[in-house]
Specification:
By secondary structure, the chain is an all-alpha fold. The chain contains 4 helices and no strands. Helices cover 69% and strands 0% of the residues. The termini are far apart.
């Protein structure tokens, strides 16, 4: 059985900042640290290159779906379809 914390003591979960608080600052600090060295700059460039491929594929798939929707022959229904056939 785990030991209980003394009364008034904060647990890690209670003292952790909310998820978004300070996140941008922490991100900028980590990025700056990585950019300070050649290996860090290489890592950032490689990470961006590897993550660009799935994102590009998602965009290409979305474009293909839009293209198919636009180029698909429009079904004419009801009265307007009959008029088009008579013309």
């Amino acid at each position: 059985m785990p030991e209980r914390a003394p009364r008034g003591a904060q647990t890690l979960q209670q003292s952790a900042p909310p998820p978004q608080q300070g996140l941008a600052h922490d991100y900028a600090a980590i990025e700056a640290t990585l950019r300070d060295s050649p290996l860090g700059r290489w890592f950032l460039a490689e990470y961006a290159r590897r993550n660009r491929t799935p994102e590009t594929q998602l965009l290409l798939d979305a474009i293909a779906r839009l293209e198919a929707a636009v180029l698909k022959p429009q079904r004419q229904s009801g009265f307007s379809g009959i008029l088009a056939e008579l013309a």
